[in-house]
């Protein structure tokens, strides 16, 4: 669905909490710069690859799916293209973000896809019904949630019983000392820019998800990334 409404997004963001407004401002950048910056962070901070992310998130799409945050839509777009190549069912996606620039970029990216709706949305205060979604993906976004616990409570609320969520969580740098030093420098820069709240320890992230009612059904550490697949218990 193609409906650019950046004015509505800007108005909604202006009434959000100061921490959400700070994140929204940090991501009000041109789409091309978002992609360049994102590739740099994925490679050197996450110590991961786009292909790993696409293969991970593509498997968790459904007829009723929430993508949060959408960014400029590049990761979801690659997931949908890969899914089409594999002849898998077309998902129905609602994608949200707090940045008006990202909403506008993503809306344009999906203007020819009737199965994708892009709109403003604050993960700490989701404007959706209880149990509305079968699946949720948190792609490259958990590290910029101002209140991760509140975000998980809201995601759990809108996820149907038995529904599945995935997230790639940025970890504190691991590995060889020079690589740790470089990743720490990148993380420090990202925190100053407001595009990173904080990386996590793996056990800290796991505990956060389980304390907020999720069951971990998939757990893999690659580089500085924890790939988590979690399930909301059936009612």
TrEMBL record:
Any GO BP annotation: methylation
Entry-linked InterPro entries: Methyltransf_11 (IPR013216), SAM-dependent_MTases_sf (IPR029063)
MF terms in GO: demethylmenaquinone methyltransferase activity; S-adenosylmethionine-dependent methyltransferase activity
Listed EC numbers: 2.1.1.163
Signal peptide interval: none
Domain Methyltransferase type stretches: 89-165
Name recorded for this polypeptide: Demethylmenaquinone methyltransferase
Organism: Symmachiella dynata
């Amino acid at each position: 669905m193609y409906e650019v409404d950046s004015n509505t997004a800007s108005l909604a963001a202006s009434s959000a909490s100061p921490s959400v407004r700070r994140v929204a401002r940090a991501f009000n950048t041109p789409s091309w710069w978002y992609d360049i910056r994102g590739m740099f962070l994925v490679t050197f901070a996450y110590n991961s690859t786009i292909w790993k992310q696409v293969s991970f998130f593509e498997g968790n799409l459904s007829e009723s799916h929430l993508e949060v945050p959408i960014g400029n839509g590049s990761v979801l777009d690659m997931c949908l293209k890969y899914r089409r190549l594999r002849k898998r069912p077309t998902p129905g996606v609602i994608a949200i973000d707090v940045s008006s620039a990202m909403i506008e970029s993503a809306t344009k990216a999906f203007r020819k896809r009737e199965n994708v709706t892009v709109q403003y949305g604050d993960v700490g205060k989701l404007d959706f019904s209880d149990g509305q979604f079968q699946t949720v993906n948190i792609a490259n976004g958990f590290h910029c949630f101002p209140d991760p616990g509140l975000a998980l409570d809201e995601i759990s609320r809108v996820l149907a019983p038995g529904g599945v969520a995935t997230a790639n969580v940025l970890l504190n740098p691991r590995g060889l000392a020079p690589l740790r030093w470089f990743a720490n420098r990148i993380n420090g820069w990202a925190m100053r820019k407001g595009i990173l709240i904080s990386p996590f320890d793996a056990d800290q992230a796991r505990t956060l998800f389980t304390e907020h009612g999720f069951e971990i059904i998939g757990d893999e550490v690659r580089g500085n990334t924890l790939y988590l697949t979690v399930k909301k218990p059936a009612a």
